[in-house]
Every structure is written in C-alpha cells, then in structure tokens.
Amino acid sequence: MDSLIPLPYYKYSLQTNPPVQITCKRHPKIKKRKKKRLKFKMAKSNTPIILLVLVVATMLVATNASGCDNDINSLKETCLQFVGVDGPKLKPDQNCCNAIQRADIPCVCTYLTPEVEKVISADKVVYVAQQCGRPLKPGSKCGSVVVHG
Predict the structure, then answer these.
(1) Cα–Cα distance between 127 and 73 in angstroms, integer?
(2) What is the secondary structure of 28-79 as a DSSP string?
(3) Shortest CA distance to 117 belongs to which of 109, 127, 107, 128?
(4) How much is the pTM?
(5) How many other C-beta atoms are found inside a 10 Å radius of the C-beta of residue 121?
(6) Residue 90 half-sphere exposure, CB side, CA atoms within 13 Å?
(7) Among 48, 84, 95, 116, which residue has the fewest nearby CB atoms (within 10 Å)?
(8) Which positions ≥6 away from 7 have C-beta within 8 Å?
(9) Which Pfam families does the entry link to (predicted)?
C-alpha cells in the first residue's frame, strides 16, 4: 500500500510490504529553485578621498596642538610672573620676550579657558605680546579678551 505525504518540493512514497522502503523523488511539476548569487558592484565613491583628508587634518591638528603645548610650557617657565593674575602689569624681561617671539600666540590664546584664567590673565598675555613686538590682530580673541586696535 502506497501513501503520499504532500510536501511542496518532494514526493515521498512509502511501501508497507516487506521490506519497508521509503523513496524520495522531486515533484515533477515544481521546478527546483536556483540559488541566487549575490553580486556586489564596486560603487564609485569619494570615501577614500574623504578618509585621506580626515587623516591629514587630524595629523595637522595633532601637530599644532603639540607645538602649542610646547609654547605654553615655555611661556609658563619664562613669563608667568608677567601674565599671572596677581599683581600689576609689568613690562616683560628679555627671556620672556624671546619665548613670546618663538611662540604661536594665537594658538596659546585658544588654551586660555575660564579655568586657566583663574591663574593667567588673558589681558596681561595680550599686553606682554604687544610689549614684545608680537601684537595680536585687532578683533582677535585671546581667552575672554577681545583685542582692540
């Protein structure tokens, strides 16, 4: 006695006469599905160029930051008595002016946060830079101070 178990793709038959046999045949009316291969097309993109620009910009920022850190450390060592919050404005000595001449003062000014200005006077930094022959551009900002012409 044969019985069929309906499944979408295969036809099963079961023979119950000894010996018992199970056979499996693909259903003739249903076509086998083909496996679809995924094809990836290489899209033309600006991604490599954008990544290159970002890497270069990061390197430039890192270089400027480290150079500016060296300037800040040099100015702390030589000019702290002239730019400190306490005391009057004093004309800087030659060692301080030498450090000012080598430093990137606009970069140093960006590091004068309100927290730093509790110790260093932005107004005195502008004054000392001017006294040493490195005046900041009018309208530029040094810490909380806007430079006047």
Answers:
(1) 19
(2) TTSPPPPPPPP-------SHHHHHHHHHHHHHHHHHHHHHHHHHHHHHHHHH
(3) 109
(4) 0.55
(5) 22
(6) 15
(7) 48
(8) 27
(9) LTP_2
Instruction: Return the CA Rg of the chain.
Output: 39
**Does residue 59 surpass a pLDDT of 90?**
no
Q: How far is the C-alpha of 45 from the C-alpha of 121, rounded, in Å?
A: 50
73 pLDDT tier (thresholds 50, 70, 90): confident
Euclidean distance between CA atoms 147 and 142, whole angstroms: 7
pLDDT digits (tens, 9 = 90+) for 105-137: 999 999 999 998 999 999 999 999 999 999 999
What pLDDT, on the 0 to 100 scale, is given for residue 63?
Answer: 47
* Residue 52 near residue 41 (C-beta atoms within 8 A): no
- Say what percent of the chain tops pLDDT 70: 55
Please state, as a whole number, how many other Cβ atoms lie within 10 Å of the Cβ of residue 4.
Answer: 9
Assign 68 a pLDDT band (cuts: 50, 70, 90). Answer: confident
